[in-house]
Design a protein that fits this description.
Blueprint: H1 3-21, H2 26-43, H3 78-82, H4 87-96
Amino acid sequence: MDERLAAINERVAAAVDAWLRDPRDAGVYERMVAAVEARRAHLSPPQGERPTARQPDTAPRLVPPPDERVSTGTVQRLGTLLGGDDPRAALERLRRGG
C-alpha cells in the first residue's frame, strides 16, 4: 500500500468513526463522503493514470462546499426528514424501499 492510500484510508476510518458516533451531524457526514470519494478516485484513476501526492483528488463531490450550498433558511433534524429519531430504523426503511 502506498503512503497516499494509507493516508486516505486513515481519513476514511476517522470520518466513519466520527459519523458512527454522531450520525445526525451533516458536517461529519460530508467529511465521510469526501474521504470515500478521495479513496475511490485514488483507487480508480482515469485510464492509465495514478494520482500522486502532488495531484488533487479528482472525484466529483456529492456534497457541494458550504459556500456553494443553497440555503433555504430552514434547518431540520435528519430524524424529522427521515420520519423518526432512530437512524437505524430510517436506514432499514430506505433499504426496504419504503
